[in-house]
Amino acid sequence: MTMISKSSIVTLFAACLITNSYAEETKNSCDGIISHDPARMYDFKIGEWDINWRNKTGPETVFEFTAISKAYTLMDGDIMFDEQTSDVFKGVTFRTYDTAQKEWIVRWLPANQNFPHPISAKLENCVPVERHRQTLPDGREVMARTSFTEITEDRFLFRQDWSFDDGDTWLPDVLFYEATRR
Q: Which residues make Cβ contacts (< 8 Å) with residue 106, sequence separation at least 6?
């Protein structure tokens, strides 16, 4: 029979505590890609992505095109830029975290166009969700709700739903893309 010293037992017990603490921390990190820390909820976007857009332009009409996204951070991750270019549009999304409000302030800045409404973003049940009002070309206002789902190391989905009645009903996936890491 092998004898285990008292100091070995203490070391083993301490290692188990560290392991259990790590397991608890991992269990609480959503799916391992999205952190419970709302200040880090966009970290999954960092890098270069091929984007396959499928936007609804009518009840039975979908406009499809591709784009490239390059997302990176500045100032120790407190600011994020996401450059998107395609044959259809180009622009940047600028994000910064408001520590007092525990939410992101997001601005989509399309090249050669007016700046749209400000966007706020929070982590909702481990899903990054952006919300804003938007004026359509015909003058109607919609509520827009954007979510990033099915996030893995190499893929995620962007879904934007619209509501014409202040959130009572939603038209799903008006703007939609699948991103695949380059």
A: 93, 94, 95, 118, 119, 120, 121, 130, 132
> pLDDT (tens digit, 9 = 90+) per residue, 94-105?
999 998 998 999
Euclidean distance between CA atoms 88 and 164, whole angstroms: 26
Measured CA to CA, the distance from residue 129 to residue 159 in angstroms comes to 10
Which single residue is written with the structure tokens 């029979």?
1
pLDDT per position as a tens digit, 104-155: 999 988 888 776 678 889 988 888 999 999 888 888 999 999 999 999 999 9
d(CA 33, CA 127): 11
Element containing residue 158 per DSSP (H, E): strand 155-163
Class of domain 38-181: mainly beta
